[in-house]
Design a protein that fits this description.
This protein is α+β, with helices and mostly antiparallel strands. The chain has 9 helices and 20 strands. Among the domains are: 142 residues, Probable tRNA modification gtpase trme, domain 1 (Gyrase A, domain 2); 73 residues, Aminomethyltransferase beta-barrel domains (Elongation Factor Tu (Ef-tu), domain 3). The chain has a 6-stranded mixed sheet with strand order 11-12-13-10-4-14. The protein has a 6-stranded antiparallel β-barrel with strand order 15-18-17-16-19-20. Strands 6-7-8-5-9 form a 5-stranded antiparallel sheet, with helices on one face. Helix 2 crosses helix 8.
């Protein structure tokens, strides 16, 4: 089966992007100057990511609120139309995270539910709605300079606050704008029709926003200790193990799918907890490497890489909950062992 392509595929190739398969899509990994330069551009100014591989499920109608409220862990009564919320869809049997999701509450009875790339079909099966992914592109504008750059071509869009949702023109094209992102920096995400996506993309680049690929998106989210489905979330991993209990509205009316299993885990206590690790030197830890205390394996790395901002390797790992910050451990890197230390996260402070 051929991979899907973004509405901006031609634009990426014209910029010389290195294209890679990701979640069933062909997406840009990096452009000419590479991942490290793109990462640093996001931390210092502003970059644009094409994240059209993420799903969009439009849920609308008089029962739309009730359907989402019954399925997801968070409580939609905490927000109102014109806001966004991070939430989880859990497995009923063991409370593991089937997907982590952003909900954009567009209007009274209209929601855009944003699943991860490979999970859209399953999310539609759980909540209904229409998969409208193919009809639009999503562009994430991120960095401390994101709003000032965007304001030169779209002042109304630049004014959309964090976790707010609204409609605004960008380079003359109407977009849905949400104050969300996945880098640990300020910024917005723009939903635009597939046919007009290139106009918005070109406008952003003309405003001095740097194109960035999935390589930088991954190193940025790791520095910010943001979870990636299939690594820090997924089969066998619950919100409590991932340190995301704040996503769970335990007492909301009607509960949510997987509540009983999650409540049972809360009562008995988690057997493992997601923690940060740092290593000296530029060699990066990698996913699935064992974490050792002495000669005993106590956990496993879920994500690891070189931190461009810190100048050394960092990792997230599931470890025993009683393993304190500051504990010296060893990451077993396929025969070459790396001394490491348990640290608090995020690795880079968020704004």
């Amino acid at each position: 089966m051929n991979p899907r392509t973004s509405p901006l595929d031609a634009a990426h190739r014209a910029l010389g992007a290195k294209m890679v398969p990701f979640g069933g899509w062909d997406m840009p990994l990096s452009y000419g100057e590479g991942t490290l330069a793109e990462h640093r551009a996001c931390r210092s100014d502003a970059v644009a990511f094409d994240v059209s591989h993420l799903g969009t499920v439009r849920v609308q109608g008089r029962d739309s609120f009730a359907r989402l409220q019954a399925a997801f862990t968070n409580d939609l009564t905490k927000i109102t139309p014109g806001r966004a919320q991070y939430t989880h869809l859990l497995n009923e049997a063991d409370a593991s995270v089937l997907d982590d999701i952003i909900v954009w509450w567009i209007a009274e009875d209209i929601f855009d539910v944003m699943p991860n790339a490979s999970n859209t079909h399953d999310v539609v099966g759980a909540i209904g709605g229409n998969d409208v992914t193919a009809s639009r592109a999503i562009i994430a504008v991120q960095g401390p300079g994101a709003r000032s750059r965007l304001a030169t071509i779209a002042p109304e869009a630049a004014a959309i606050g964090r976790f707010r949702v609204g409609t605004a023109p960008v380079a003359g094209v109407t977009c849905v704008v949400a104050g969300t992102g996945y880098t640990g920096e300020d910024g917005v995400e723009l939903a635009v029709t597939a046919a007009e996506a290139h106009i918005v993309w070109d406008g952003l680049l003309a405003a001095g926003v740097v194109p960035a690929g999935l390589g930088a998106r991954d190193t940025l989210r790791l520095e910010a200790a943001l979870p990636l489905h299939g690594h820090e979330l997924g089969s066998g991993i619950t919100p409590l193990q991932a340190g995301l209990a704040w996503v769970v509205a335990w007492d909301k009316e009607g509960g949510f799918s997987g509540r009983d299993a999650l409540l049972a885990e809360r009562e008995r206590g988690v057997a493992r907890h997601l923690r940060g690790l740092t290593v000296e030197g530029r060699r990066p830890p990698r996913a699935d490497q064992s974490v050792l205390v002495g000669e005993a394996s106590v956990g496993v790395v879920t994500s690891g890489n070189f931190s461009p901002m810190l100048g050394h390797g960092i990792a997230l790992a599931f470890l025993p909950p009683d393993l304190a910050v500051g504990t010296e451990v060893v990451i077993d890197g396929r025969g070459a062992q790396m001394p490491a230390r348990v640290v608090a996260t995020p690795f880079i402070p968020r704004p």
